[in-house]
Write a structure and sequence with these properties.
- With about 240 residues, the protein is an alpha+beta fold.
- The chain has helices at about 25-35, 65-70, 105-115, 135-140, 180-190, 215-225, 225-235; strands at about 15-20, 40, 50-60, 75-80, 85, 95, 115-120, 130, 135, 150-165, 165-175, 195-205, 210, 215.
Length: about 240
C-alpha cells in the first residue's frame, strides 16, 4: 500500500492486524466506512477469537484476492491438552479429558511430525463450509451433525516451540483451507487424549508479515477520510 498517498478507489492492498473477537467481515466493514469505498474484500477469513494478519483489497485490487488466498499461511498459537469442545476452540463449552501419565516431550514432538505433509481434514461443524446450501455452523448451532467430505491440505511445518503442560506452544505453516482447530483436535487424539486450540495468531501470509500491518484503530486514525476532511476545514 502507498503509505503516503493511497488510492483506495482505484485499488490498494491493506495489511490489518485483526483484534480478537472481531469477525473478518467486521474489519472489512470498518475499513470500508473509513475510506468511503464500497469495493473492499478480504483474502482469507480468520476465526473471530483469532488475531493477526488479514489482507484486504480495495477497488480493482479485489480482482487479485484469489492470488493472496493461494499463498501459504503461518500461524502461532497454543494447544491445550486434556480439554475439548464442539468447536475445537474456546468458543463453545469446554470439557475435561484425562491425559495419559506417560505423555512426555518426546512423544509430543514425534506426534507433531505425523501432521507434516499432505493430510486429510474433515471440516469442523463450526465452520462456514456449505452443506446443502447452508453453512455447517448453522447446523451446529442447532445441535445437529452432518456428514462432511474430507479435504486435502498441506502442512509445511509444525514446530513445537515450548511445552508447559498442559499447554503446547506451536508454529504451523500450511496451505489455504487448513483448519488449525482440526489439527489441534486430531493432535490431541494422536496423543491418547483430547485437545483444543486456546490461542491463535496468523503471523504471515506468503511474504506479508503481521509486523507490517496496522491495527484497525491505527488505520482509521491515519486514513479516515471523514477526519481528514474535517481537519482541512478547520485549517482553512
Amino acid at each position: 500500500m502507498n503509505q503516503t498517498h493511497p488510492d483506495f478507489q482505484s485499488g490498494e492492498v491493506i495489511l490489518i492486524d485483526k483484534p480478537a473477537f472481531w469477525s473478518s467481515f467486521k474489519v472489512v466493514h470498518k475499513i470500508r466506512q473509513a475510506i468511503g469505498v464500497k469495493k473492499v474484500g478480504h483474502a482469507g477469513t480468520l476465526d473471530p477469537f483469532a488475531t493477526g494478519l488479514l489482507i484486504l483489497c480495495t477497488g480493482n485490487k479485489t480482482k487479485e484476492i484469489t492470488k493472496y488466498q493461494e499463498l501459504k499461511k503461518t500461524y502461532s498459537g497454543i494447544i491445550t491438552l486434556g480439554k475439548y469442545s464442539d468447536s475445537m476452540d474456546t468458543e463453545t463449552e469446554i470439557k475435561d479429558f484425562p491425559i495419559p501419565q506417560n505423555l512426555n516431550e518426546e512423544l509430543i514432538i514425534r506426534s507433531s511430525k505425523l501432521f507434516i505433509g499432505e493430510i486429510e481434514q474433515i471440516p469442523p461443524m463450526y465452520s462456514a463450509v456449505k452443506k446443502d446450501g447452508k453453512s455447517l455452523y448453522a447446523y451446529a448451532r442447532k445441535g445437529k451433525t452432518v456428514e462432511r467430505e474430507p479435504r486435502k491440505v498441506t502442512v509445511y511445518r509444525f514446530d513445537i516451540e515450548k511445552i508447559s503442560f498442559p499447554e503446547i506452544y506451536f508454529t504451523i505453516e500450511c496451505s489455504k483451507g487448513t483448519y488449525i482447530r482440526a489439527i489441534a483436535d486430531d493432535f490431541g487424539k494422536s496423543l491418547g487424549t483430547r485437545a483444543l486450540l486456546t490461542s491463535l495468531r496468523r503471523i504471515a501470509i506468503g511474504e506479508y508479515n503481521v509486523g507490517d500491518a496496522l491495527t484497525v484503530n491505527e488505520f482509521i486514525e491515519k486514513f479516515d477520510l471523514t477526519k481528514n476532511i474535517q481537519r482541512q476545514i478547520i485549517n482553512c
